[in-house]
Amino acid sequence: MKKNILIVPGDGIGQEVTEVGKKVLEKIAEKFGHEFTYDEALIGHVAIEATGNPLPDETLEKMRASDAVLFGAVGHPKYDNDPSAKVRPEQGLLKMRKELGLYANLRPIKLFDELLEASSIKPEILKGSDILFFRELTGDIYFGEKGRKNDGDTAYDIAEYSRFEVERIARKAFDAARTRRKKLCSVDKANVLETSRLWREVVQQLAPEYPDVEVEHMFVDSAAMMLIKDPRRFDVVVTANLFGDILTDEASQIAGSMGMLASASIGDSTGVYEPIHGSAHDITGKGIANPLASVLSAALLLDISFGLKEESDTIIAAVDKLLKDGFRTRDIADASTPENMILNTQAAGEELLKRI
Ligand code: NAD
Fold first, then answer.
1. What single string gives the DSSP state of each residue in 95-157?
2. MF terms per GO, please (predicted)?
3. Which of 101, 201, 222, 241 has its CA 20 to 30 A from that of 171?
4. Whole domain around residue 236: which residue ranges?
């Protein structure tokens, strides 16, 4: 297969981890006889420094022209401590999502058995958890009308969803459920919110088209509780932007570490694949960042954008083997990990390539 992949490392450890993600893609291409070509582009603080713009037109053009984007992270301490800065790295991220029409954010929450102890939840509750979240990304309270009234003493944010917006993400979630355990949980607050009532109505109307998928509707408060009480009951979860934002961060704790979780943002054109973590200024340049979230993002890219399931599974199996062989990066090591089994970013990448 011939494909063109754009590498957009961004800021901080984004640079360090995407380097490993790219090497893994190169290794997979070599092993399976694919021809991947690569280009690179700027976003975030590094793009502001070079061009004054957090998402230069050239980057956007390259994104549109590529078959998939492997993304790192954006962010710099300079802006975190200056909320009044007019040009900010994260504007690049939001504009990218908007311009590429990335309306669905997929976040697989899969716990590697070797990391059971790294989570704050009891191993016997967690073992076997495997959830795929679909968070709607371009609607809801984040994008509706907002403002102040009554001399600024009252504020409002309007939540809005159209039938079209709910249907397109619900279909993606139904399709994904078909390839997994065939269970879909739609999370809403239909007892209180009109947007949620529309959401539930649309999902109910689609359900007969997917008779092989078992559909369950759950209120968001109940879902927040169930994720911790019994995470194994979930297979695919689909929800609105605000609920998804909160529930996916809650669910990330099931997997133990930020350094292990990948995500995909997809729409109708180029998909963007990235770790859920940020630019991690506290460890930037030390060479100790866990590259596995970027590596697992590369696995998602192969599966979702290119349909290369076997190649994707090969990467996941190599990560599993690396952990089973006892190797850890600092963030997922514990008191029982021997010092010689704690790898830096580059060494973790090299051990992983051997296992592919
Ligand atoms: P963060 O995810 O960068 O880091 C949180 C903590 O987790 C830090 O202690 C960090 O060292 C650790 N960590 C994160 N990824 C790791 C990895 N791969 N290996 C080892 N440890 C890892 O979040 P933050 O500190 O709140 O934010 C730092 C910057 O990142 C901010 O500027 C923020 O705006 C930005 N950010 C960007 C994104 C994105 O680009 N999608 C997401 C979140 C935060």
1. HHHHHTT--EEEEEEE--GGGGGGSSS-HHHHTT-EEEEEEE-S-GGGTS-EEEETTTTEEEE
2. 3-isopropylmalate dehydrogenase activity; magnesium ion binding; NAD binding
3. 222
4. 119-255
- Which numbered atom of ligand 1 lies nearest the CA of 289? 19
Residue 113 lies in a domain: no
Q: Are 13 and 71 in contact (CB under 8 A)?
A: no
Q: Is 303 annotated as a binding residue?
A: no
* Structure tokens that stand for 258 in this block: 């930020």
State how far the Cα of 303 lies from the Cα of 130, in Å rounded to an integer.
17
Q: Which residues form ligand 1's pocket by a CB distance below 6 Å? A: 13, 17, 73-75, 80, 90, 93, 258-259, 277-283, 289-290, 293, 331
Contact 11, 92 (CB under 8 A): no
Is 347 within a domain?
yes
* Number of domains observed in the structure of the chain: 2
**For position 98, what pLDDT does the model report?**
85
Crossing angle for the helix pair 241-252 and 220-229, to the nearest 10 degrees:
10
265 and 229 belong to one structural domain: no
Q: Annotation-wise, does 107 bind a ligand?
A: yes
Ligand 1 atom having least distance to the Cα of 293: 18
Residue 38 lies in a domain: yes
Please state, in angstroms and rounded to a whole number, the distance separating the CA atoms of residues 306 and 271: 10
pLDDT value of position 113: 86
Looking at every residue in the chain, the average pLDDT score rounds to 95
Q: Spell out the residues 6+ positions from residue 264 whose beta carbon is closer than 8 angstroms to its own.
A: 105, 106, 107, 271, 272, 273, 297, 300, 301, 304
Supply the pLDDT for residue 107: 94
Whole-number Å distance, alpha carbon 278 to ligand 1 midpoint, is 3
- The reported pLDDT for the residue numbered 241 is 95
Annotated ligand binding at 80? The verdict is no
Q: Which residues are marked as active site? A: 142, 189, 221, 245, 249
Amino acid at position 57, single letter: D
pLDDT in tens, 205-247: 999 999 999 999 999 999 999 999 999 999 999 999 999 989 9
Residue nearest to atom 10 of ligand 1 (CA): 280
Q: Both 248 and 268 in a single domain?
A: no
